[in-house]
Design a protein that fits this description.
The chain has 194 residues and is an alpha/beta fold. The chain is built from five helices and eight strands. It has a four-stranded parallel sheet, sandwiched between helices. Helix 4 crosses helix 5. The termini are far apart.
């Protein structure tokens, strides 16, 4: 005879809450930590790199791609740790609804580039225009989604901007690094599967 207790729940919100509670209870019973460790700038230190943290806000049929919202959440987390602002770059048609949506998901500013030529994705034109923005505003980093558009655009922008690129990251965090006599404060660590 089974000792398991079955629960039949049709409300997905309640089901998610039950799963979360069960998971946290299991972690506590095994003695595992549930608190997330986040980076904090040392007292009296400033980040080695300065500028905003940007996210490319991709559009699909007049709506923001869900992956862009997820990146805005991560960008907000990272930006808070280094006391900077989050910018969303929106290329193509724009509306007040899209701008407000990006702000509600974590952007402090929305940089909008509109033109009839930009209504359809053109990698060369998009990368040129984004790089012009990068040259003008000098963000310290820019995040792209691992979508087909992001995979096409990120390497082009990185090349034109003469910057580094790490594709297919599974984790992003901030840490300090010291090599020899050089010390870097608050740099981005990118984790990707090998």
């Amino acid at each position: 005879m089974s000792t398991r207790k079955c629960i039949f729940e049709s409300d997905l919100n309640k089901l998610a809450g039950l799963l979360k509670d069960a998971y946290l209870s299991k972690l506590k019973s095994t003695g595992q930590e549930t608190a997330k460790v986040t980076y904090q700038l040392p007292v009296g230190k400033n980040p080695t790199y300065t500028g905003e943290l940007w996210v490319l806000a991709e559009q699909e049929s007049g709506e923001i791609n869900q992956a862009s919202y997820e990146l805005l959440g991560k960008a907000r987390e990272l930006a808070t740790q280094v006391s900077t602002k989050v910018g969303a770059v929106l290329v193509g048609q724009s509306s007040l609804k899209l701008q407000n949506s990006l702000i509600s998901y974590g952007a402090d500013k929305v940089y909008i580039i509109t033109s009839k030529q930009l209504n359809d994705f053109q990698p060369v034109l998009y990368s040129r225009i984004i790089c012009e923005l990068l040259d003008k505003y000098r963000p310290q980093m820019m995040l792209f989604s691992a979508t087909p558009l992001g995979r096409e655009l990120a390497p082009r922008v990185a090349y034109r901007a003469d910057s580094g690129l790490t594709a297919d990251c599974t984790a992003l965090d901030i840490f300090d690094y010291k090599k020899g006599t050089q010390e870097y404060t608050a740099i981005l660590r990118q984790t990707r599967p090998a």
